[in-house]
Specification:
Helix content is about 55%, strand content about 20%. The chain has ten helices and twelve strands. The chain is elongated, with a radius of gyration of 50 Å.
């Protein structure tokens, strides 16, 4: 497989090509302009020769001796290798220069075309010709002059050599300058590549050096450093998560192992039943933990891989309440309230994943039941606005201190008032936050110590076609 061309080579090549093309276009413009100018100058000279010939041959009877002598002197300084022909009205050649010219006579068609167009200029390779109809008191005559522009051709050839040498020299200079320009341009990227290659999962705390370079390079370095910061936080969170999961799994497993050993040695049936009851509670804890971890893994998938459909929000809440039968809620009650009467099903419809939303409300209602004292109620209030559907889960528990509320959505974090009172893993609210993010919903917690807590969810209402 061919090796990819380096960015330095690409920049140098493109820079050189652009400069050479511009210089080539400029040189070609100069050459064409000079060529056109030279042709026009030579055409003017042929016209002047035609007028001089007319004065010498056709107007000599009207010129005094001095004027005629001047015309003869001008005519004598002719153009090298020129050919002059003069034809009368009868298509007879009445004058030639040189006098012993033996070229073929011009055809009547050619002469008539000249008479019709009055003046014709032509180029045939190096040979340039000029033909003109001249009116005189003696009649009308056709004057034809043909001559090679030898001096002009030599000038054009010299100009080609000069421009070619200049382009070759410019090409060499451009390649060298372009290479150094590309090397200077790529130098910051080479430094960034070198520094990023030295950063691994073991030294994610390292950052790229910020130098006084262009704004774009500084922005790139800032973005990479921000990415490294997020990666470092993700790795740290992963390590903490794995450590906490290991601890949460190891603790019930150790208890289960101990209870099994004690139960196997226990002779008293009542004591054995107590051991089995403790064993069942720890198994439930493991099952609950595994469920939450599975839901958490589900939220970590790409949003495009999660199935979304139109769901009526109150139906999901009722499904969640039916799934909480395994939670013992002594003297506690869950109420579902509508803030406004939904006159139409579409008022409570959202785009979401039914399983994830059910897991969300299971966790919120379970938390409300677990952390609420006896003889209290957990209220689930469902409302809707112009473009949103809201759900509030309200409990009358111990509440969460303001200092701990920003941390409550971190994995495995448990607030101080409930940490030693109710069994749990600290995953529930973190899982709820992730599910809300997957649905582009907002989740807010309002709580004061001793006054319970309110968790409010806001979903964008689904558009019904």
């Amino acid at each position: 497989m061919l090796k990819s061309i380096s960015l330095k080579s690409k920049v140098a090549t493109v820079f050189s090509l652009i400069v050479i093309l511009l210089l080539g276009a400029f040189a070609l413009s100069i050459y064409l302009f000079f060529k056109e100018t030279q042709q026009n100058i030579f055409s003017e000279r042929l016209l002047e020769r035609a007028r001089t010939t007319a004065n010498l041959i056709l107007e000599k009877d009207e010129l005094d001796s001095i004027s005629f002598q001047k015309v003869e002197e001008i005519f004598a300084s002719g153009i090298p290798d020129e050919v002059i022909e003069v034809y009368n009205e009868n298509n007879q050649r009445v004058f030639t220069e040189p006098l012993n010219l033996h070229t073929q006579l011009k055809s009547p068609d050619q002469l008539n075309r000249i008479r019709k167009q009055k003046r014709i200029e032509q180029m045939n390779g190096a040979l340039q010709s000029f033909a003109e109809l001249y009116q005189d008191n003696q009649g009308s005559f056709v004057i034809i002059i043909e001559a090679p522009d030898t001096i002009g051709l030599r000038k054009l050839q010299s100009l080609r050599y000069i421009l070619g040498f200049a382009l070759l020299l410019a090409f060499l200079v451009t390649v060298v300058v372009g290479w150094f320009f590309a090397q200077r341009l790529i130098k910051p990227f080479s430094r960034i590549i070198s520094e990023t290659q030295s950063i691994t999962e073991h030294n994610l705390a390292n950052r790229l050096t910020i130098t006084n370079e262009s704004v774009e390079i500084q922005q790139l370095v800032h973005n990479i450093n921000d990415l490294l910061s997020r990666l470092e936080q993700s790795f740290q969170a992963q390590k903490v998560f794995i450590a906490n999961v290991s601890h949460e799994i190891r603790t019930p497993l150790s208890i289960i192992l101990g209870e099994l050993e004690i139960a196997s040695l226990e002779k008293d049936e009542a004591a054995r039943q107590a051991q089995l009851k403790s064993f069942r509670e720890e198994v439930r804890r493991l099952v609950r933990l595994s469920e939450q971890l599975l839901w958490l893994a589900h939220t970590a998938r790409d949003r495009q891989d999660i199935y979304f459909s139109k769901i009526r929000m109150d139906e999901v809440v009722f499904e969640a309440m039916q799934s909480i039968g395994r939670i013992r809620a002594e003297n506690r009650k869950v109420n579902v309230n509508y803030e406004k009467d939904p006159t139409d099903d579409s008022l409570l419809m959202v785009n979401g994943n039914n399983d994830l939303l059910r897991a969300l409300f299971i966790n919120l209602i379970e938390n409300g039941l677990k952390y609420s004292p006896e003889n209290t109620e957990v209220n689930v209030n469902i409302g809707f606005g112009d473009n949103e559907v809201t759900v509030k889960v309200i409990n009358e528990g111990a509440g969460i201190p303001l200092s701990e509320q920003p941390k409550i959505f971190k994995p495995f974090y448990r607030s101080t008032p409930t940490k030693n009172q109710v069994a749990g893993h600290g995953i529930g609210l973190y899982l709820c936050k992730q599910i809300a993010l997957v649905h582009n919903a907002t989740l807010d917690l309002k709580s004061e110590p001793g006054k319970g807590a309110v968790v409010e969810l806001r979903f964008r209402r689904a558009e019904i076609a």
